[in-house]
């Protein structure tokens, strides 16, 4: 038994010692916990940890296998995302006890705060006392046992799992219903309680999902996209697309859903140009060897940065929205081009980890497929707040794509129209993020960067907060960002264009006297090295490509990602359709695309007279449209670089 | 021809006088179209077929192809391997769709004729695909064209080379009949060969230009085999005899040497003849190298023909085992001059293959004594310059197999187009025409709206093989039935069509596609892509761009505001107009006073179901709150109305406001021009509601006239603020509201609710004709009522999602600060700032 006294050493050091003890199978006793946060976070070994007092936030969070015991009370986020093992708390627990539980026994002898067991997937949460409101909020599976009173709105928006209540049910939540509890089930519960030496007399009531909101009630008729230029207001106010939208909404009574990003023309990188005439130069194939393009991102707080051979990443896209094959092609291409890949929402696959040299692991509000083991083998962690395609809303995955395999990896019921929560259980305000980041750093020994993904909205305010919260970099996603499924109106009309997003971000950092301090990885409609060079000139540290990488790998831009029948095998979980996708061919194509991208970046850099891609700057740019000039503050030079078509470079 | 041989990044100009649409920014020729040597607009005819527009499909098919019926059956269809769906679950059956369309229209369908308009005449030697394609182009250009054909019929290798089980008798006649109907200026001289019926000098005297398209009629011999041995026949001769009607008896085993189309036709013909039990095809390379079209090869195998790969005959022998070929096995060595790996004999692999007849099908050559005498031959081809299709004689051009070696029908047609182009330039006196390239046209047909398009697998034709009576050469396969063709055409990706995304437009998508496929070492292509991307683009908003609600975007809550979950968290959408009229959402209806009674009933039911209200001269019943629209001088207020909304036709003038019941609201409908006078009037008379009319037109459906003028709300609020009376009157907005997002934006701009007219017309199943709705189609009254209710429900949901995205739990809390404008015109019209530089100040 190792004894660790938190009066003597900080939690960070204590957690290192606990992990080291775990590695050799030695039990640990923690003295003077003093309600400190993150005690035991990141422990994945089969040992006992006794905490002699009260613990703070995220006690035993992001752990597996270990058995914790806390003499007194714990703060919020008890046993956050615990994979296995157990926690016994002899006192009370704060809010979101057992949040995102994935298989542990979490026993609280006293009361639990609000939203106990939020987004839990598996395992058991026992509260021997009373629960506060919304126990089992958005739970996907597992079991919550409340021996006292349930609190208000118990089971609110639950999609799976059971909630057992021994006391009064104060009120049922939306889409939760009382159901029968068999004698055998009751006996099993008593058996479990007995194991943890909790006695209970009286009958249980059982609450499960009422099944009314798991699927959209009416299927949306499938249509193929109308050419975008026929669907803008400039093509007639009541154009064909407007009529189609009205007709379909009048059939289904809800918003429409589709894949991809904005459909209409917006101010974008094509509305700005390089001041200098790069076309008259004749770049050669070796230009990439002459230009410095290496980029390191995420070392701001001492973590090992993401090392990129050029300032480009693969944007986060989930396994789920995309097929496994498409994800593997992206991972392989990222390795071939020596850049990074990102898991997106859907968890990490072994093959993906294997294929990618550098893999960023994204944490979303639903904690779908989130696990300490994958965190510890990731090269970066990213907390998703929102994305450009649907800022303010959680991810959406239609039932067609929620196969048994996807459901398994995400820890959710099969065949539901998945609408991920829009808000993290443990991030209600900016300050919560500070503690959340710290939890992630504790779990990974402060070794890897922690970034935040933001859809562009109130960018100026959001960037200042992200900077103060201590993120290592920001993934900033403009209105043009795409997705596998979102409400079509949200896709079009929520957020600001990518061009405006980078401008606001850069200005905001300057305003707080920290220019350039927080690297911005810009995404949302970046298609080529030309777009990337402009983004870098405006102040981005790197860009990320999502949709364009998919197109390079065979996507035909039909906007039907949400349907799940992707004709080329990218946005589908149907094995018949996925079989159409040739991983090695498409990985090579994506790699070729990235190399062409690299060559463009190098050619432009050299054309502008620099030897380092990061030397491109604002002065190299002009705005071609009044909108772009107003958004960026660049000189408005209408018609700059316009040429007679006949003079445009021809290739014989 | 590779799919990307045509430079799609920086295309050269199209040939003069051709229809070419490559300059259209919303069009990129599809891979199938680029792969077709004559640029057939397959995507358009495929899409027309889905629409059932067969005459339009016919036009797209035959625009550059005078032998469409033939090609529908026997084209080697380089389009199909180029098809992007080939990599997924099988290429679109482009060829068979063509056959279906041609069969559907039938042999009697006739195009409109073109007149002879030019004085010059042209002589063409050879009535095969190259010559007749040139003849058609030149006839369409107005020339009189004389075709001199050596045999007794037109068609060249199409009739003499292709057996009737692949190309039934009569099919070619359909194409020829249409050609004759289209081009009365084409005069045919049969049984009149070059040298045998007419001399070159005579042709040059008779005509202003001459095209030599004599074909490659002689089969090449193999040095190893004695061509005079009666048991060795040449493939071309063999097929010519059979296609001429002969049905010779065969020995039990026939050996065919070669792996091309002639070998395939010869082996399959032999298989059908009397006496033949086995056919073996000997090919010197492997299955990956065999040039025969995949389908022909599979057809041959299905018919029981054995393909022996990697084998090279070295001699004929007649030993104890009977007659046959002495062969060696081969393996692939280094690539030869045409890039294919040369087969190399394997030492010690000599073996014997028995067979009673050997058909040699190892290539074709041209022979013409007349041209040879004039020193115009180059070995077994007519000496021809590809760059202008001229022979050594300034007035004589050449095309087709005779000029460039044996190839396919569609390549011969390309030669014909090319030669016609240069001949016309010659006759026009244009000595330096732009280089020819295949033109690419599009008919911009909408994509097939078939929801199953991603799921349908390639539809198969029924393969009949030898049939019951092989000797009669019945056709080997059927075409599609109507259902199968519809499924097949629905599968087309429509690589040519503009996408639904401005950001990933067809141009942008294809540039990315090129980046992913062009070699990095291909600097010219990489440079072309880079230069194209550097080029300034069209502005997102045209100069005449009108202010649009579509230019307003919402600012989402992220870190700076608590995120409200739009999927789950509650959000109030109810409204109470003037503090009295309770609505389920701030959505009202108007415009149906003159609509048919069943439409009004349906509307009433729908509004009642949702909990909405109606503004109009009459109530819609169903206890739907009625806001009576009335002219104070002509109409009497109704006691049943929940509100009286006064309206002044022809502009606002003051009026005496009649007394109303205590529980009735008073409202005034105003246009932007009225505001200055109407607003103080309304405030002075303590009106409860302003109905701001931003509709651009007049009459029953004023919204249908175009973009609404929603600056009316900006001006109203400015005036109210100036008077400090913002809270004293409520604002309803009418004009161009289409969605819940529009509703949310109008609330953000200051409205308390919006009024729907035209969008409800569409929701009720109306069709617009002459600026009015017609309700002839659509469902019954109950379905229409339900549609209204569902439409309102969806709008309320959309608006509440927008509210929650901005961090609000009540849609009435959306404010101007939640919005940004992405276009200057709209920023001016609304007072909503643009994002970006200085936006945060």
**SS element count, helices of chain A:** 17
The global form of chain A is globular
Major sheet of chain B: size, sense and barrel closure?
8 strands, parallel, barrel
Q: How would you describe the shape of chain B?
A: elongated
Assigned CATH architecture of one domain in chain B: Alpha-Beta Barrel
Number of helices of chain B: 26
Mean pLDDT of chain A: 95
Largest sheet of chain A: 11 strands, mixed
CATH fold topology of one domain in chain A:
TIM Barrel
The CATH first-level class of one domain in chain A comes to Alpha Beta
Strand adjacency order, main sheet of chain B: 22-23-24-25-26-27-28-29
CATH architecture of one domain in chain A: Alpha-Beta Barrel
How would you explain this protein's 3D organization?
The complex is a heterodimer of chains A (652) and B (841). With 652 residues, chain A is of the alpha/beta class. Among the domains of chain A are: 110 residues; 330 residues, TIM Barrel (Alpha-Beta Barrel), CATH 3.20.20. In chain A, 26% of the residues lie in helices and 16% in strands. Chain A contains 17 helices and 27 strands. Chain A is globular, with a radius of gyration of 26 Å. Chain B is α/β, with parallel strands linked by helices and 841 residues long. Among the domains of chain B are: 132 residues, Orthogonal Bundle (Fumarate Reductase Iron-sulfur Protein, Chain B, domain 2); 135 residues, FAD/NAD(P)-binding domain; 256 residues, TIM Barrel. In chain B, 31% of the residues lie in helices and 16% in strands. Chain B has 26 helices and 32 strands. In chain B, the strands form 9 sheets. Chain B has an 8-stranded parallel barrel. A 5-stranded parallel sheet of chain B has the order 3-2-1-4-18, sandwiched between helices. Chain B has a 5-stranded parallel sheet with strand order 6-14-7-8-9. In chain B, helix 7 runs parallel beside helix 16, helix 11 crosses helix 12 and helix 20 packs parallel to helix 25. The model of chain B has no long low-confidence stretch (mean pLDDT 94). Chains A and B meet through helix 3, helix 10, helix 11, helix 12 and helix 13 of A and helix 18, helix 19, strand 19, helix 24 and helix 25 of B.
């Amino acid at each position: 038994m190792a004894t660790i006294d938190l009066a003597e050493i900080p939690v960070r050091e204590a957690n290192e010692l606990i992990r080291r003890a775990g590695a050799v199978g030695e039990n640990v006793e923690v003295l003077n916990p003093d309600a400190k946060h993150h005690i035991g976070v990141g422990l994945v070994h089969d040992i006992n940890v006794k905490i002699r007092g009260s613990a703070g936030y995220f006690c035993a969070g992001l752990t597996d296998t270990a058995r914790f015991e806390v003499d007194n009370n714990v703060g919020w986020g008890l046993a956050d995302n615990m994979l296995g093992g157990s926690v016994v708390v002899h006192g009370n627990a704060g809010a979101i006890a057992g949040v995102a539980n994935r298989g542990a026994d979490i026993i609280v002898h006293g009361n639990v705060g609000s939203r106990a067991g939020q987004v839990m997937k598996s395992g058991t949460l026992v509260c021997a006392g009373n629960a506060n409101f919304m126990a089992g909020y958005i739970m996907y599976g597992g079991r919550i046992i409340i021996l006292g009173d349930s609190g208000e709105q118990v089971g609110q928006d639950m999609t799976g799992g059971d909630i057992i209540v021994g006391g009064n049910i104060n009120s049922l939540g939306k889409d939760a219903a009382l159901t029968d509890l068999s004698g055998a089930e009751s006996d099993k519960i008593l058996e479990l309680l007995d194991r943890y030496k909790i006695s209970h007399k009286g009958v249980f009531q059982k609450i499960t999902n009422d099944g009314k909101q798991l699927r959209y009630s009416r299927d949306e008729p499938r249509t193929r996209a109308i050419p975008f230029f026929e669907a803008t207001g400039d093509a007639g106010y009541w154009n064909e697309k407007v009529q189609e939208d009205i007709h379909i909404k009048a059939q289904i009574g809800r918003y429409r859903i589709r894949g991809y990003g904005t459909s209409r023309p917006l101010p974008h990188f094509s509305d700005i140009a390089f001041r200098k005439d790069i076309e008259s130069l004749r770049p050669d194939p070796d230009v990439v060897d002459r230009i410095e393009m290496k980029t390191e991102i995420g070392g701001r707080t001492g973590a090992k940065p993401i090392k990129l051979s050029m300032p480009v990443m693969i944007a986060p896209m989930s396994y789920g929205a995309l097929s496994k094959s498409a994800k593997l092609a992206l991972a392989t291409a990222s390795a071939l081009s020596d850049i990074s890949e990102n898991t997106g929402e859907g968890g990490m696959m072994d093959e993906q980890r294997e294929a990618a040299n550098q893999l960023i692991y994204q944490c979303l509000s639903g904690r779908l497929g989130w696990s300490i083991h994958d965190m510890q083998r990731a090269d970066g962690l990213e907390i998703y707040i929102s994305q450009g395609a649907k800022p303010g809303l959680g991810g959406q995955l239609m039932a067609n794509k929620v196969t048994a395999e996807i459901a398994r990896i995400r820890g959710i019921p099969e065949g539901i129209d998945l609408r991920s929560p829009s808000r993290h259980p443990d991030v209600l305000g900016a300050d919560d993020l500070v503690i959340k980041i710290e939890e992630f750093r504790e779990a990974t020994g402060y070794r890897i960067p922690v970034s935040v993904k933001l859809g562009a909205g109130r960018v100026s305010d959001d960037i200042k907060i992200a900077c103060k919260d201590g993120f290592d970099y920001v993934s900033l996603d403009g209105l043009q960002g795409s997705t596998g499924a979102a409400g079509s109106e949200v896709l079009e009309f929520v957020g600001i264009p990518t061009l405006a997003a980078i401008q606001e971000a850069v200005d905001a950092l300057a305003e707080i006297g920290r220019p350039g301090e927080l690297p911005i990885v810009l995404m949302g409609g970046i298609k080529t090295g030309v777009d990337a060079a402009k983004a870098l000139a405006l102040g981005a540290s790197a860009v990320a490509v999502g949709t364009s990488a998919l197109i390079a790998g065979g996507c035909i831009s039909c906007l039907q990602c949400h349907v799940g029948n992707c004709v080329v095998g990218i946005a589908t979980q149907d094995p018949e359709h996925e079989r159409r996708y040739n991983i090695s061919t498409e990985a090579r194509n994506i790699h070729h695309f990235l190399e062409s991208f690299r060559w463009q970046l190098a050619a432009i850099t050299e054309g502008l007279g620099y030897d380092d891609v990061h030397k491109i700057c604002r002065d190299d740019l002009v705005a071609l449209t009044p909108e772009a000039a107003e958004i960026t503050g660049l000189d408005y030079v209408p018609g700059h670089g316009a040429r007679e078509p006949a003079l445009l470079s021809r290739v014989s | 021809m590779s799919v990307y041989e045509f430079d799609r990044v920086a295309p050269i100009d199209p040939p003069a006088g051709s229809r070419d649409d490559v300059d259209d920014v919303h069009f990129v020729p599809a891979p199938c179209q680029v792969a077709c040597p004559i640029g057939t607009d397959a995507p358009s005819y495929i899409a027309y077929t889905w629409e059932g527009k067969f005459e339009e499909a016919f036009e797209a098919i035959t625009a550059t192809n005078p032998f469409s019926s033939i090609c529908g059956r026997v084209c080697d269809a380089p389009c199909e391997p180029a098809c992007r769906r080939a990599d997924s679950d099988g290429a679109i059956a482009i060829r068979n769709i063509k056959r279906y369309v041609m069969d559907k229209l039938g042999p009697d369908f006739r195009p409109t004729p073109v007149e002879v308009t030019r004085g010059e005449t042209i002589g063409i030697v050879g009535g095969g695909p190259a010559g007749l394609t040139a003849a058609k182009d030149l006839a369409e250009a107005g020339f009189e064209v004389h075709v001199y054909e050596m045999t007794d019929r037109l068609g060249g290798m199409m009739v003499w080379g292709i057996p009737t089980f692949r190309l039934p008798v009569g099919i070619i006649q359909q194409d020829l009949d249409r050609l004759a109907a289209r081009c009365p200026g084409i005069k045919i001289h049969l049984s009149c060969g070059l040298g045998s019926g007419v001399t070159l000098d005579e042709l040059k005297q008779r005509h202003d230009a001459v095209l030599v398209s004599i074909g490659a009629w002689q089969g090449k011999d193999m040095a190893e085999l004695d061509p005079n041995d009666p048991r060795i026949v040449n493939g071309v001769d063999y097929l010519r005899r059979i296609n001429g009607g002969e049905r010779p008896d065969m020995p039990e085993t026939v050996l065919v040497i070669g792996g091309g189309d002639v070998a395939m036709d010869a082996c399959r013909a032999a298989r059908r003849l009397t006496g033949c039990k086995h056919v073996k095809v000997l090919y010197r390379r492997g299955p990956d190298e065999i040039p025969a079209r995949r389908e022909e090869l599979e057809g041959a195998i299905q018919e029981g023909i054995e393909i022996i790969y990697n084998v090279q005959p070295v001699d004929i022998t007649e030993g104890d085992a009977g007659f046959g070929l002495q062969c060696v096995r081969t393996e692939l060595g280094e690539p030869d001059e045409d890039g294919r790996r040369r087969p190399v004999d394997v030492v010690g692999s000599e073996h014997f293959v028995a067979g009673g007849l050997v058909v040699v099908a190892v290539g074709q050559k041209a022979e013409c004594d007349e041209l040879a005498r004039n020193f115009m031959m180059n070995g077994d081809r007519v000496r021809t310059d590809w760059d202008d299709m001229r022979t050594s004689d300034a007035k004589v051009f050449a095309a087709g197999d005779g000029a460039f070696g044996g190839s396919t029908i569609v390549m011969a047609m390309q030669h014909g187009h090319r030669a016609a182009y240069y001949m016309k330039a010659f006759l026009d006196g244009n000595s330096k025409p732009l280089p020819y390239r295949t033109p690419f046209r599009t008919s911009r047909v909408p994509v097939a709206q078939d929801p199953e398009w991603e799921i349908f697998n390639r539809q198969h034709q029924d393969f009949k093989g030898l049939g019951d009576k092989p000797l009669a050469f019945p056709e080997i396969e059927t075409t599609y039935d109507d259902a199968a063709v519809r499924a097949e055409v629905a599968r087309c990706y429509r690589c040519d069509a503009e996408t639904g995304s401005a950001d990933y437009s067809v141009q942008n998508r294809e540039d990315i596609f090129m980046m992913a496929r062009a070699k990095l070492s291909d600097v010219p292509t990489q440079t072309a892509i880079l230069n194209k991307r550097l080029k300034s683009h069209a502005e997102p908003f045209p100069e005449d761009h009108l202010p649009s609600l579509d230019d307003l975007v919402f600012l989402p809550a992220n870190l700076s505001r608590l995120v409200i979950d739009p999927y789950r968290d509650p959000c109030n959408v109810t409204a109470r107009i003037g503090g009295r009229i309770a609505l389920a959402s701030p959505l009202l209806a108007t415009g149906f006073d003159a609509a048919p009674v069943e439409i009004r009933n349906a509307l009433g039911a729908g509004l009642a179901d949702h909990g909405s209200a109606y503004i109009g001269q009459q109530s819609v019943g169903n206890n739907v709150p009625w806001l009576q629209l009335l002219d104070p001088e002509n109409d009497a207020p109704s006691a049943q109305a929940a509100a009286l909304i006064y309206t002044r036709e022809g502009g606002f003038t003051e009026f005496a406001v009649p007394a109303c019941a205590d529980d009735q609201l008073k409202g005034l409908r105003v246009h932007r021009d009225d505001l200055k006078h109407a607003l103080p009037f309304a405030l002075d008379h303590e009106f409860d509601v302003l109905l701001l009319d931003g509709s651009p037109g007049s009459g029953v459906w004023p919204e249908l006239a175009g973009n609404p003028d929603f600056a009316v709300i900006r001006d109203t609020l400015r005036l109210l603020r100036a008077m400090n009376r913002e809270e004293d009157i409520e604002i309803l907005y009418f004009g161009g509201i289409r969605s819940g997002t529009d509703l949310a934006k109008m609330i953000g701009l200051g409205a308390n609710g919006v009024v729907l007219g035209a969008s409800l017309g569409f929701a009720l199943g109306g069709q617009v004709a002459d600026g009015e709705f017609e309700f002839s189609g659509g469902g019954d009254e109950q379905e229409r009522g339900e549609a209204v209710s569902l439409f309102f429900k969806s709008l309320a949901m959309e608006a509440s999602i927008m509210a929650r995205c901005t961090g609000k739990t009540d849609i009435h809390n959306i404010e101007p600060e939640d919005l940004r404008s992405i276009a200057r015109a709209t920023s001016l019209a609304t007072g909503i700032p643009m994002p970006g530089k200085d936006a945060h100040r």
